[in-house]
């Protein structure tokens, strides 16, 4: 495939700092744009039997989002795209992709050149997720509490295992593992140094 851009995927569980790292890398690399999996959340398709899928190892190839894949392909080819919110995005030299499955999903291996996996204790990621929810809460305190109760119940049943399995899969095949406990500046510098070693930057 002829490419007009170098694609860097940032992977990690919710609360690991993917969004912050994606934005920091975008700013540090200058000729770069960010592209987020969560922007296409409404068109994600997970297996119908979610628990069975998880029990069998959560094969990322069974998670489909053709709209995301199509738009990333267009960006890699150097063409502009329109996000689901109708915002136009112009391709740049670097595309920083927030993609929780790394290269694992169908069609991603040929589009992603470099995968960074954020390794973080899940209790730290969960604490960050809760704090973020509290700080950005737009509902009443009782509604916010109810939302957290529902989320934590699901977290104990399935979400924790999901994050653990997905991150283990990504870590096994990524290009660089970074610690989510380090500062965002330290993590960003490590990534840029690794890219320079590979004559990317």
Describe the secondary structure blueprint for this structure.
Blueprint: E1 6-11, H1 18-29, E2 32-36, H2 50-55, H3 66-76, E3 81-82, E4 88-89, E5 94-98, E6 114-119, H4 122-135, H5 141-173, E7 176-179, H6 184-197
Parallel strand pairs: 1-5, 1-6, 2-5, 6-7
Antiparallel strand pairs: 3-4
Helix pairs in contact: 1-6, 4-5
Q: Could you describe the 3D structure shown?
A:
The chain contains 6 helices and 7 strands; from the N terminus they run βαβααββββααβα. The strands form 2 sheets. A 5-stranded parallel beta sheet has the order 2-5-1-6-7, sandwiched between helices. Strands 3-4 form a two-stranded antiparallel sheet. The radius of gyration is 17 Å and the shape is globular. The relative contact order is 0.21.
